[in-house]
Amino acid sequence: MEKTMEATKHIALIAHDQMKTSLVEWCRKNYEALSHHFLCGTGTTAKLIAEQSGLPVKAYLSGPLGGDQQIGSKVAEGEIDIIIFLSDPLTAQPHDPDVKALLRIAQVYNIPIANNLATADFLISSPMFSGSYTYHRPDYVRGKS
Question: Could you confirm whether 68 is annotated as catalytic?
Fold first, then answer.
């Protein structure tokens, strides 16, 4: 089934503790581009971005307390278009199953997800970032992937 992302995207911003500063800096650097979109994120990350960049960010629960699952739910409902998730590849996370579930659901629903700053830079610099984009979203209910 086809889905169209409108020009104003719904973007989830998530970062593990060791990566929060990097994500905040990236948001400040890309303030102008991000300011045209609806932003949300997990607990502390959303709060830090809002306080330190001036961007409005809707906060969900902290990742370990269910925030990753809340965002995953929004992906499944078609309410998230892009995920920027700076994960810490060198530190074990107590909520690793939740992180894997979020990554899986983004893959299932064909949602662009950046796990590092280079990929985030590629996404934000794409002409599709500020325009509409029609893509294939699998319809698993009807058995059409």
Answer: yes
